[in-house]
Design goal:
12 strands; five-stranded mixed β-sheet; 15 helices; four-stranded parallel β-sheet; 416 residues
């Protein structure tokens, strides 16, 4: 078994906060002044100077600033600026957790053009786990994870009672596990099918054991784009409203962006600003997860594969634009281990978790390994020059991960 090492005894042991991350969400106290000192310690390319000054004085970046960041040729300076923001806030730490993805069904009433996961009910490989199957699947991983991430298709018959029983049974059986699940469109679908409000739906699910929402399905928060790539899903405003409601009842959420389909650079920046504006209102977003479209056999031939440089640029810009969302995740299930490690030098502070089982991204073309344990995750972080910190789902427990020392093998001389 591996062990978690105590980094400091100065912090509250009751909350298991053992690293130097003493503020909410793991932030270091006084990080804004540290950032200002770092920014003023060097000169910046001409086009980045006004942006650096804004960041040093705690001002949020606007649409024009975002366009500059996307168009600058000073790629290394962009990455350095984002890394300064990240390191001022979290030092050399990079976070991961122990999780598994369990997708309860691939049957979906929608047919988003970019989705390689969904199936119609009559498809040969369509499936829908009953509640016993779901709990049994969780049991396979329960000794090794503290988070289960569950999203799926919009099943035409599963209303609020089904999901209440699914989460309550699972939570009662595995009380140590945090259940993070259901995207905004799933919440809308369940609410509509059950003829209840979104607030009642979220409240009942929260009471049943659903701890947080993962934030998937944001795609691009522009309805002209959504009408082409995911017609029939919730509108941009509905996505924001559902997350606002979750925050209002005390349920934290993540937020996402799927980029590289048909959107413009300006639409990406507006997406970030809309998320930031909601965060100013509710402070309920824990983490932002930008991930590129993966070309596959879906029905979106006009989409383009993002280059590694574009992926790292998107990570860096997310860090700089989203000054009020604490964590920026390099989602290795989408971009792979190599780029996730590089992203830790471009402003990301989180690489998600062990995962172990995942369908949606892998059907879309991901080749990210699914056999990582905590030691492998820590090595990924260390190889990127950072310090591995194991966290829980809601970013209020942190412990530095120290890999176990391999047992020394003793070779015996053969008898002559």
């Amino acid at each position: 078994m591996s062990k978690l090492a105590v980094v400091s005894e100065k912090h509250d042991l009751k909350n298991h906060v053992h690293c130097d991350c003493s503020m909410a969400a793991g932030e270091r106290e006084g990080w804004q002044s540290v950032l200002a000192d770092k920014i003023h310690s060097r000169s910046w390319p001409r086009d980045l100077q006004p942006i650096a000054l804004k960041l040093a004085t705690g001002q949020s970046l606007d649409l024009e600033d975002g366009m500059v960041l996307f168009n600058t040729t000073e790629f290394n300076s962009l990455g350095e600026l984002a890394l300064m923001c990240k390191e001022s806030r979290y030092g050399n730490s990079a976070f991961f957790n122990l999780n598994v993805h369990i997708n309860q069904t691939n049957i979906c009433t929608l047919a988003c053009r970019f989705c390689a996961f969904r199936r119609g009910r009559r498809a040969a490989d369509a499936y829908a786990m009953d509640i016993d199957e779901y709990v049994a699947d969780v049991a396979k991983y329960a000794d090794h994870v503290d988070e289960v991430h569950s999203v799926g298709g919009l099943h035409p018959e599963w209303g609020i009672e089904h999901y209440e029983e699914m989460f309550s049974r699972a939570k009662e059986t595995f009380p140590h596990i945090h259940f993070k699940g259901l995207t905004a469109i799933e919440i809308k679908h369940i609410s509509s099918l059950s003829k209840i409000s979104v607030k009642e739906c979220l409240t009942r699910l929260h009471n049943a054991g659903l701890g947080s929402l993962p934030g998937g399905g944001a795609e691009i928060l522009d309805d002209d784009v959504r009408n082409i790539i995911c017609k029939g899903k919730e509108s941009s405003q509905e996505y924001l409203d559902i997350h606002r409601t979750a925050h209002q009842i005390g349920m934290p959420t993540n937020c996402t962006m799927l980029y590289g389909t048909i959107e413009t650079i300006e639409q990406r920046i507006v997406h970030l600003i809309r998320l930031r504006e909601l965060q100013n209102e509710t402070n309920g977003f824990q983490c932002f997860v930008p991930y590129p479209f993966l070309p596959d056999d879906s029905r979106l031939p006009e989409a383009q594969l993002a280059s590694g440089v574009e992926i790292l640029r998107m990570i860096a810009i997310s860090r700089l634009m989203l000054d009020n969302i604490p964590h920026i995740k390099a989602y290795r299930m989408n971009i792979g281990d190599y780029l996730a490690g590089l992203a830790l030098q471009f402003g990301a502070d989180d690489i998600d978790g062990t995962v172990q089982k995942e369908s949606i991204m892998h059907l879309a073309g991901s080749t990210a390994p699914l056999d990582h344990d905590a030691t492998a995750m820590a090595k990924l972080v260390e190889d990127a020059g950072a310090r591995p910190i194991q966290r829980n789902t809601v970013y209020d427990k942190f412990e530095e991960y120290i890999a176990p020392i391999p047992k020394r093998r003793i070779s015996l001389r053969m008898a002559e």
